[in-house]
Design goal:
Distance between the termini of chain B: 30 Å
Low-confidence stretches of chain B: none
CATH architecture of the largest domain in chain A: Up-down Bundle
Structural class of chain A: alpha+beta
CATH superfamily of the largest domain in chain B: Butyryl-CoA Dehydrogenase, subunit A, domain 3
CATH architecture of the largest domain in chain B: Up-down Bundle
Number of domains of chain B: 3
CATH topology of the largest domain in chain B: Butyryl-CoA Dehydrogenase, subunit A, domain 3
Shape of chain B: globular
Strand content of chain B: 5-15%
Shape of chain A: globular
Largest sheet of chain A: 8 strands, mixed
Helix content of chain B: 40-55%
Oligomer: heterodimer
Structural class of chain B: alpha+beta
Order of helices and strands of chain B: HHHHHHEEEEEEEEHHHHHH
Chain lengths: 373, 392
C-alpha cells in the first residue's frame, strides 16, 4: 500500500505542467475557444511531449505506460483546463484498439502514438442517456452502420470513431466498429459545449466500418473503455478543482469588504473547509478508480461507479461554492474561475452523473464494503 | 502507487486475525456485533487479554514495552480487532496519557505508570473539559497551587467518560492565572482515590451512565505527579491531540457497522426499497472514500515523502459517518426503534422484545452518537482548523 509517486511520475507531471503553463494560458485558451474549441497545434504539442504515445503499447511505437501515469497527466490537463480530448484520443482509443485484431492495431496505434490520428469514442445516443447497453445504431453482416451518435468529443476534428452498434439488427449484441471520418455516409455537425470544448453529432448512413470487437464482447470492451474514461476524468476533475480552490483561497485573502480580507469571515472559512473536504474525498476516489482499473470487470465497475458518485458530488459542490465565494466576479466571462465552474459542470454529465452511478452502486452492492472488500 | 498491502503486511494481518479469533471472548464480540451494553468487566477483560500479549499499548515503541509497529501495522491491528467485534480500547490510558508520559514524563513516572496501563490493570480517565471550557480548552479554571512538595487542587472537570471506573485521572490545571491562558496550564496526574475527589454521574439522553462530573476539593497531589515542567501543560495537551492520528476516523468500525446496517435493513424489509437502498449505497461510497483518505495518510506517514494535513477532515468525516449509520439503522427499524426498554440492551435478556431483538438498541445508539461531532474538538472547531490550512 503506497500512494507516493515515483520520481519518473513526478518528472512527467512537471513536464506536462510546464507545457500547460507556457502554451495553454488563459488568453491562449480563449483564442482556442473562439476558434471552435479544438486546436490541432495543441494536439501536436501534446504529441511532441510524447503524451499521445503514453498508453500505446511499445510494440506499436508507444510508451506502454499504465493508469497511474495517465492519472498524473490528466490532473495537470485538468489544472490547465485543456479542452482537447486527451483521455479519449490517447487513453480510451488505444485501450479499445489493443483488444481488437492485429490489422486494426497496426493500422491505427502507431498513428495515435505519433499524434497523427485522433480517434474518439462515439457512443452517446438519444434513447440511452447514460446506459451503455442501450444502442439503436445498427450494423449489417458486412459491417455497414446506420444511426446517430451525439455529443462526440471533438467530433468534427477527429480522424476516426469507435462506434458501438447492434451487429445484425435490433436485439442483436453490441459490437464495436471503427469508422473513418472520410467514409461514405458519414455526416458531422460540430458545435461548442458550455465549457468551450468541441463536440459533434455523427450521422451514419450505410457507412462501411471495420469490426473491432464482435457482439460477444463488444459491450464488455465498451464498459472497460468508459471506465478508463471515468478514471481519467476523475483525475482531470481533481486537477481542475485543486486549481479552482487555490484561486478561491487567493481571492479571499485579497478581496476586502467591511475593511478586512473576506478570508477572515468564519461563515466563509467554514465553507472553504467543506470545499477542501470535497476536494480531498475526490482525490482519494480518483486514486481509487485508477488503482482499481486492472481488477476483474465486476469489482472494477463497482469501484468506478463509487468514484463517480463522489466525483460528481464534489465537482458540483466545489464548482458552485468556489463561484459563490468569488461574489460578482465569479459569474463573469472575463474571470478564469467561471471557466473552471463550467468545465466541472459539463464533466458531471459525461459518462454518467452522480444519480446514475449511485444507482449502479446500489444495484451492485455487496454484503461487505470497503477498499479491500 | 499501489493499493495492495505487501505480502509481509498480509501475513501480519493474518497473524493478528488468528490471534483475535482465538482470544476475543465470544460473549464480548456478541455484544459488540449486536450493540448490546458493555460493562466494566467486558472492557477490562479485553484490555487485560491485550495487555498480556503486550498489545494494549499497540502504538507504543519497543523501549516502553510496546510492539514497535509502524503506521500500517497499527492500522491493520485496529482493523482486525474492529471487524472481529472487539470493543474499542478505552483510549485514555494507552492512547492518550501514555504517549505524553513517554515524551515528557520523568523516568520514575514512566516506570510507575506505563506497566499498569499496558497490562490493563489501571484505569485512566481524562480531565480536560470543564463546565466553562469545552472547545475553548485553554480557558480551564481548575486550580493547582504549589505548597511545599504538594499541589492543592480545587475545581471541577466534566464529561469524564467512564470516570466512574477511574483509578487515575490526567488533568489540565491552572498553575498561573497571571499570564495568557495557554501559558499557565500544567499537566497533572491525580490518584482518583485521593481525599477530596468526588465523581458524580451525568445521565445522557439515551439513559446511560457514560460520563461524569469530577470535583476536586482541596485535593493534595504530590508534586512528583507533575508531568514535565510547570506551565507547559498546553504543549503536552497539543502533543496528545496530534497523537490521535488516523484512528480518530474510526473507518474500520464504520465498515463493520455498515454490514450490520445491511443486515438490519434486509430483516426490516427496506433493503430492496430503492429509496432506502440508495441511502445505504451513498453511505457505502462515503465509507470507501474515508478509507482511501485514511490509507493515504498512513502511506504518507510510512514513507515520509509527503505531508498530508488532513487530521481535521478525518475527524469531521469519520464522525459524520458514525452518525449516519446509526441514523439509518434507526430509520430502518422505524416504529420498532421507538420503544425504550432499558433492559433490552443487556445480553441474554429474556423479556419480550417489541419487534426484532436487533431493534432494541438502535435509537439509543442514534442518540448516543450525537456526541461524536461534539467531542474531541467539535466539528465546527475542526472546520476552523481545516480552513486555516487552506486560507492561512
Amino acid at each position: 500500500m503506497d500512494f507516493d509517486f515515483t520520481d519518473d511520475q513526478i518528472s512527467l507531471r512537471d513536464a506536462v505542467r510546464r507545457y500547460v503553463d507556457k502554451d495553454y494560458g488563459f488568453e491562449q485558451r480563449r483564442a482556442i475557444v473562439k476558434a471552435g474549441g479544438f486546436s490541432r497545434a495543441v494536439w501536436d504539442g501534446l504529441a511532441g511531449l510524447g503524451l499521445t504515445a503514453l498508453a500505446v503499447p511499445e510494440a506499436h511505437g508507444g510508451l506502454g505506460f499504465g493508469p497511474v501515469e495517465a492519472m498524473v497527466v490528466m490532473e495537470e490537463l485538468g489544472r490547465g483546463l485543456v479542452m482537447e480530448p486527451y483521455a479519449q484520443g490517447a487513453l480510451v482509443a488505444p485501450a479499445v484498439l489493443a483488444q481488437s485484431d492485429a490489422g486494426a492495431q497496426a493500422q491505427w496505434l502507431p498513428r495515435i502514438a505519433g499524434g497523427e490520428a485522433l480517434v474518439v469514442l462515439a457512443h452517446q445516443e438519444r434513447r440511452a442517456r447514460y446506459r451503455l447497453d442501450v444502442c439503436d445504431t445498427l450494423a449489417t453482416a458486412d459491417h455497414r452502420l446506420s444511426g446517430l451518435k451525439s455529443v462526440v468529443p471533438a467530433g468534427d476534428q477527429a480522424d476516426a470513431f469507435i462506434v458501438p452498434a447492434r451487429a445484425g439488427g435490433t436485439g442483436a449484441g453490441i459490437a464495436l466498429y471503427l469508422v473513418a471520418k472520410d467514409a461514405p455516409g458519414v455526416a458531422l455537425r460540430g458545435y461548442p459545449l458550455h465549457d468551450g470544448s468541441r463536440a459533434a453529432e455523427l450521422t451514419l448512413k450505410d457507412t462501411p466500418a471495420t469490426l473491432l470487437a464482435g457482439p460477444d464482447r463488444g459491450l464488455a470492451v465498451l464498459e472497460h473503455a468508459v471506465d478508463i474514461a471515468i478514471a481519467a476524468q476523475a483525475a482531470e476533475a481533481v486537477g481542475a478543482m485543486d486549481r479552482f480552490v487555490a484561486l478561491t483561497a487567493e481571492y479571499m485573502n485579497t478581496r476586502k469588504q467591511f475593511g478586512v480580507a473576506i478570508a477572515s469571515f468564519q461563515a466563509l472559512r467554514h465553507r472553504m473547509a467543506d470545499i477542501k473536504m470535497q476536494l480531498e474525498l475526490a482525490r482519494s476516489m480518483s486514486y481509487f478508480a485508477t488503482l482499481k482499473l486492472a481488477e476483474p470487470a465486476d469489482a472494477r465497475r463497482r469501484a468506478v461507479s463509487q468514484a463517480k458518485v463522489q466525483l460528481g458530488q464534489a465537482m458540483r459542490f466545489v464548482g458552485q461554492q468556489c463561484t459563490q465565494l468569488h461574489g460578482g466576479i465569479g459569474v463573469t466571462d472575463e474571470y478564469i474561475g467561471s471557466h473552471y465552474f463550467k468545465r466541472l459542470t459539463v464533466m458531471e454529465m459525461q459518462y454518467g452523473d452522480s444519480l446514475h452511478h449511485l444507482g449502479e452502486v446500489s444495484r451492485r452492492m455487496q454484503d461487505t464494503a470497503g477498499v479491500f472488500a | 502507487m499501489d493499493l495492495n498491502f505487501t505480502p509481509e503486511e498480509q501475513a501480519f494481518r493474518a497473524h493478528i486475525r488468528q490471534w483475535v479469533a482465538e482470544h476475543l471472548p465470544k460473549d464480548i464480540s456478541h455484544k459488540v456485533h449486536n450493540a448490546l451494553r458493555l460493562n466494566k468487566d467486558d472492557l477490562q477483560r479485553w484490555a487485560r487479554l491485550l495487555g498480556k500479549q503486550g498489545w494494549h499499548g499497540w502504538a507504543w515503541p519497543k523501549q516502553f514495552g510496546g510492539p514497535g509497529w509502524n503506521a500500517v501495522q497499527r492500522h491493520l491491528f485496529e482493523e482486525e480487532c474492529a471487524l472481529a467485534g472487539a470493543p474499542r480500547v478505552v483510549p485514555f490510558g494507552p492512547v492518550m496519557v501514555a504517549p505524553v508520559i513517554m515524551a515528557f514524563g520523568s523516568r520514575e513516572q514512566q516506570e510507575r505508570h506505563l506497566p499498569g496501563i499496558m497490562s490493563g490493570d489501571v484505569w485512566w480517565s481524562q480531565g480536560y473539559s470543564e463546565p466553562g471550557s469545552g472547545s475553548d480548552l485553554a480557558s480551564v479554571k481548575t486550580r493547582a497551587e504549589r505548597r511545599g512538595d504538594k499541589y492543592i487542587v480545587n475545581g471541577q472537570k466534566t464529561w469524564t467518560t467512564l470516570g466512574q471506573y477511574g483509578d487515575w485521572i490526567f488533568c489540565l490545571v491552572r498553575t498561573d492565572a497571571s499570564v495568557k491562558p495557554q501559558a499557565g496550564i500544567s499537566f497533572l496526574l491525580i490518584d482518583m482515590k485521593s481525599p477530596g475527589v468526588t465523581v458524580r454521574p451525568i445521565i445522557m439522553l439515551d439513559g446511560e451512565h457514560e460520563v461524569n462530573e469530577v470535583f476536586f476539593d482541596n485535593v493534595e497531589v504530590p508534586a512528583e505527579n507533575l508531568v514535565g515542567e510547570e506551565n507547559k501543560g498546553w504543549t503536552y495537551a497539543k502533543y496528545l491531540l496530534a497523537h490521535e492520528r488516523t484512528n480518530i476516523a474510526d473507518v474500520n468500525r464504520a465498515k463493520r457497522e455498515l454490514e450490520r446496517l445491511k443486515r438490519i435493513a434486509k430483516a426490516e424489509g427496506v433493503y430492496e426499497d430503492p429509496r432506502f437502498r440508495d441511502q445505504i449505497a451513498l453511505l457505502e461510497v462515503d465509507i470507501v472514500a474515508l478509507e482511501m483518505m485514511v490509507l493515504r495518510v498512513l502511506s504518507a506517514e510510512s514513507s515520509g515523502k509527503q505531508s498530508l494535513d488532513v487530521a481535521g477532515l478525518l475527524k469531521i468525516r469519520g464522525s459524520e459517518i458514525q452518525q449516519r449509520y446509526t441514523e439509518l439503522m434507526m430509520l430502518a427499524a422505524g416504529p420498532y426503534a421507538t420503544p425504550f426498554i432499558h433492559e433490552a440492551m443487556e445480553a441474554g435478556w429474556q423479556g419480550d422484545h417489541v419487534g426484532a431483538a436487533h431493534c432494541a438498541p438502535l435509537a439509543s445508539h442514534y442518540f448516543n452518537y450525537r456526541k461524536t461531532t461534539i467531542y474531541g474538538g467539535s466539528n465546527e472547531v475542526q472546520r476552523n482548523i481545516v480552513a486555516q490550512t487552506v486560507l492561512g
